[in-house]
Give the backbone structure.
Amino acid sequence: MTWRKKAYNVETLRQLAKAELPRPIFDFADGGAEDERTLRRNENAFDDYWLVPRPMNGAADRDLSVEFLGHRYSIPLVIGPTGLSGLFWPDGECATARAATAVGAGFCLSHGSVCTLEALADTKAHPRWMQVFLYRDRPFTKELIRRAEAANYDGIVLTIDNQLLGKRERDLANGFTIPPEFSLVQSVAMLAKIKWWWRMRSELRRITFGNYVRPGKKEDIKKLASRMAELLDPALSWKDVDWIRSMTSKPLIIKGILSANEAEAAIHHGADAIVVSNHGGRQLDGAVSSLDALPGIVRQVDGRIPVLLDGGVRRGTDVVIALALGATACLLGRPQLWGVSVAGEAGVRHLLEIYAKEIDTAMGLCGVGKIADIDLSLLANRPGNS
Ligand SMILES: Cc1cc2nc3c(=O)[nH]c(=O)nc-3n(C[C@H](O)[C@H](O)[C@H](O)COP(=O)(O)O)c2cc1C
């Protein structure tokens, strides 16, 4: 059976990726912080909602497109920022970005990509956003934003939930390091992962944090990784957001909002959109799940700016539920990494087509012809109604 036939949903794609990747690399993506309670709840929160189909509404043709921040997307999905995608497949970020554009989804590049933001821009993937952190080294943050503007990115994503690094215990157990180094036992176990080794044989030496390497300088990735950790700034405040806002006229998207108060403040400080997110349960374990946080935030924002959501979105019906609760679109974190690990660009394209088909089927069965018609009336247990 071909990988396409085996991967008929997101979970089967994840299983294929698990079989493909060395354990420490699979766990680096699959795992979360501490006891992974937030990671699990992100996925399980969708089980609390039930859809009420309206079959007699007759939705013969479904239009999955949605417009926000000046672009029309063919599906309400954006590839979220994930650092080191190039560890999963050679040139993983560019492969993923090309797939997103081919299917009409958005793409956001992580600050911690293996390729440089300029190399990603050369793929002409569009629309594309650049994700940054606010570092102690403010000039470096400014430099990244300037470079993203010069490379014609369509938006700047400021992630605010990474001011310290979460305690990811699978990485500790596996002795995961950047760059990956494998123990003798791990190396023997990895003989079974020969396809990944072969594919990555010349890449592994080149793995780096592309955006941090100074032109003309050869920097050791180990030194870069520790420099990045030291640069994180727990003293982050809204004043810093004002500083970023004043620096760019690009749409500013704040990622990592989990409360109505912070959403209000984000609007006040000039955000053009927010992402309701807990970093996929990789940072604060015990943080409220994105879906649980969504209704209160949507009420507060009241349509003033787009509200995006990520965390645990694994099915087309999950997207429909998030949209019914008021999200404009969803971001995908781990699922894109499963897609790229299995078959590079074709794997991510296949993943996005799975979501598109599932969203389309759910809309058809619900009797909904367009995204704008997905609303609270589709849910049996509406927030405040249960
Ligand atoms: C391997 C990995 C790396 C990530 N790197 C970043 C990053 O560099 N910047 C960021 O804002 N979020 C990062 N995230 C978080 C994702 O953007 C997203 O918020 C989260 O994965 C969504 O949850 P999901 O994986 O359940 O879809 C990363 C997630 C993973 C799995």
